[in-house]
Every structure is written in C-alpha cells, then in structure tokens.
Amino acid sequence: MGKIFDFSGIENSENTIKKTWDEFCECLAKGLFSYNEIDKAKHQTFLRVYDDLFNRHSGIDHKTIAIKDLKGTLIGRGTILKNDEVPNYERFLPKEEYIKEDNRFSPPGVEWLYLAIGNDNDIHECVQAECRVETGNRFGFCHFQFVDKYDEYKLVDLTISDGFSYAELNASLEEYGQAQVKKGVEIAKVLGFIPKMSVDKKDFADLFTRWGVYTYTKLLSEQIFIPLDVTDNKAVAYAPFQTISQYYISLGYSGIIYGSTVCPVGKNVVLFDKKIACPIGAIEDYRIL
Length: 289
Hints:
single chain, alpha+beta, eight-stranded mixed β-sheet, 7 helices
C-alpha cells in the first residue's frame, strides 16, 4: 500500500520557514519594530503564522510544561571566579548593574535567571561550556531549586522535537491515513462497493496540529538555535529571540526551555522572574583541568 502523505518536500517547508524567519530578523535589524512591540511583530509572516498555529489553534499546549513537572530535575548555574573571590549565593543571582550585554532572550539590564537543566553531569558540562571556561580557570557552581509557590507557572519547551527525526514525526500522521484506507478496504470487501469514508475530524485536526507543532519546532530548533560567531553583533542577532520571549510573556508564560548552542548534552531554562528558583546547598569551587 502506498503512502497516503508525501513528506518528500520537507526541505521546501524548511526553506519557507527559514525565509520568513530571515525576513523577520531583517525587519528587526532595520528598526521597523523593536523586540517588545509584539503587535507590530505579528504583522510579519513568521510570527503571524506562528501565532496562528501555536496560540489560536492551541498548538502551544503541546509545548507547555508546568514548573511542578520539573520537580526532581536538577538545575544549576556556574561562573568563572577570581582567584581571591569568596563566592556566596548572591554571586549566582542576576543583577541589573552587571548585565552589560545582550543575552539570548533578554537585553542588557534585564534580571532573568538562566539555568542549566538535566542530570548532574550534564548541567556541569553545560554551564562550563556556556561560560567558555579554559584550563586553569577557577570555577564556581551552585545548584538551584524551584520555589513551591510557583508550581503552576507555565514554561514553553522548545526542545520537544529534539529526539525525533522527521520520519518519526511523520509516522503518526501516516499511520492514521493508512488505518483509514485499511478500514475502507475491509468495509468494501463486505459491502461489495467502496463506501464514503468517515474520518473523525477532531481526531485528525488534533493529530495534524501536533504534527505541525513538532515539525515546526524541529525546524526552528535546527535553523534558529545556531551558535554566534565572536564577531556577531549580539544586539542584532538576539533581537528575534528577545521578541519571541516577549511574545510568550504576552501569552502568560514564565520561561523557556531551550537547547544549548555550545553543549551537545545541554539544556537551559530562562525564567522571566528570578524568584521562581533559588540557590541551595554548598557552592562548588574547583579548577578546570
């Protein structure tokens, strides 16, 4: 039995999304709108289509996770220490006066909390890579924990498709189509003619939305989360990400989970309110070998 859906043109879809993303970035770079002007940003094809799929058609539900769902997962933050420094918890908390450069999702001076998330080995490897450590550096690491009163706060998970290939994402939709054809053939054998097929529109719509969300997110993850070159202008390069974070804030979300651009095993979470998590335990202090 042949395939019901042909996904051989996935590269065309990828190129279309990349093109609208490039146009989105170019408009930001030209100053046609700023990172916090979400209504203006929605006039651009990229965010207009994104909003239609993820917000208006509830696709974002597939990417939403509550803080309480992360309980038991380790989170932490690290920093390169001076030789004579005596670190305390305050050293690992963001402070406006020390945030002089753009971060991926926030501009200078914004006190959002960026943390590595995962198992203990992964978060250590991730924060060291993020800090660009070198042999001989003195390094400090502090574990954090989520504060209970924020359990119901929602995060957007941009890593949901990282473990899937396009073929795997397409499989569920293909299997649904194959099942419908098989059902029709079996009925035709009994009746002696091909009946009009009845497809559960809600089930198919939900399935198709999930497929769209996962595929779109995978395309975004591959195309957008690209490490910056040292010569790149961070203010320009990060403006699109900062716009996306403001878009999520407008929908009531409290942070974003995203893949590290410099560590293959790493995941990060950025919390829009630094009080959502607090430092705990002993501060680790060691040399990079």
